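Inputs:
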Amino acid sequence: MAGLNRVVAVASNTFRETVRERVLYNLAFFAVLMTASSLLLGQLSIRQDEKIVKDLGLGSMDIFGTLIALFIGVGLISKEIERRSLYPLLAKPLTRSEFLLGKFVGLCFTLFVNIVLMSLGLFAVLLITYHRVDFALLKAIYPIFLGLMLVVAVALFFSSVASSSLLATLWTLAVVVAGRFSDVIRNMRDVANVPHWLATGLYWALPNFRNFDVKNQVVYGDPVSPAALMWMTAYAFTYCAILLGAARLAFASRDLN
Amino acid sequence: MATAPGEPALSVSHLSKSYGVGFLARQRRPALVDLSLEVARGEVFGYLGPNGSGKTTTIKVLMGLVFPDSGDARVLGHALRDPLWRSRVGYLPEHPYFYDYLTPVEYLDYVGRLFGLSRAVRSERSASLLAELGLSEARDVPVRRFSKGMAQRLGLAQALLNDPELVILDEPMSGLDPIGRRLVRDVILGLKRQGRTIFFSTHILPDAETLCDRIALLRDGRLLKAGRLDEILGRDESHQLEILVSGGSLAGLPEPARVGHRMGERSHVFVPEPRLSATIEALARGGARILSVQVVRQSLEDYFMKEMGQDPAPSASWQD
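Outputs:
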């Protein structure tokens, strides 16, 4: 119980940090984008404008969220080490595992708040402009959030093992970009000069962020089954657990110089 | 749970630590070599050495921030990996950095939550520490606006929030102005009066001389000496005698007697105790009138510089 309280303390401080560091200011960009698109698209397209607003809204949630998860996530541990701000904390009854978990939960909560506010904004625009709200969009929004959790886990892992924030950023960026183009990696098996084992190994080892991309399906009214959502959930949680476990192992034995 | 009577607050046994340097960190640079020392309960212990001598590494090992290659240490009778001692120890790191988006009250509240303190206790202790350390008026100012001295005082506040039995301070006087240093000295003396154990590293030797019951001297990761100040400074070869003379000739004084500053007719002659008789005879022969003879105990700084000067390490430096 005491351990859980410490995790919550670290998580709430991480959330407060992101708020104070004005991370949620991205919502202002989102608001401007949504307002502008709802005003302009009606004049530019015929009957497709609602789909475009939805597409733009979901895409923005994904992109803004990924940028926050990536650039804030890589600093979660490495910045703390570089600035030595975690030294006094780890001398207290706070284990390194609790610190890692608290950081992860805190940033995920920030992303959750961000995505909830964006969703409300998108629904408000749809309600005002088209006089209806499509709650089926939640079937695309939820996987976006799962994907963002996974980006945080990747960033936290590299933040725990890399010797600097820059290296952690580069590694995380590489994995996230590769994971978003996992189908390209899979197709590399068919390219003659790429070893089959390498392409297959990378395809299975890298987190497959395409699993969470059902935006087009939802916008165009195609069904997303509950089983698919459950599979995505299981995939995200399993992968996050593996990455957090690896981060814990690396961080537990790391000298903080 | 209090430490058992007679059990040291800190004990370090054959501790060694090296860091990887060079390409792929394949070479090892020793930071601590077979270090053993004990700090008794209730004493103020000064941990002295030039930059790079291993003071901070020792403290980081004790705090679990770096892991030793070999050896062992116990804090308040517990093994390092045992988490039980952590709520009974306060730690101030060297050059502390705190979340600059927080105010001191918010930071101390966060730290208090890590200690599992109730909201009421957090609030009461944080207010009283901020008052004691002269930060009451800055209680709602973000830490990013703090001077180095204010940050250091906040560091002390977070180290004392849990009312610790043992306080470990890494260069607590570093970067402080004379008023700040006085404040830290007063805090340390106050803790001592309350029976707390204080282990602090410093290179500000007059402060160590004023505050410490015992000291340890470290160079190149090796313990040179540990003991009570009077033991360390009071040895035969450390005793200097100062002879105040008036008039006469000071020529022909036996070696290694030397003449210090002169004021008119009066001169100060310094001589090691074994050469006192010969020096007095020489002074009498020269017609000097001896006004007084008194023991001059060398300062810790004198002693330290002598110790460092015997075989100065290239890395050793007293400059920040």
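Remarks. Chain A has a mean pLDDT of 90. The interface with chain B takes residues 2, 5-6, 9-10, 13, 16-17, 20-21, 83-85, 87-95, 253, 255-257 of chain A (CB under 8 Å).
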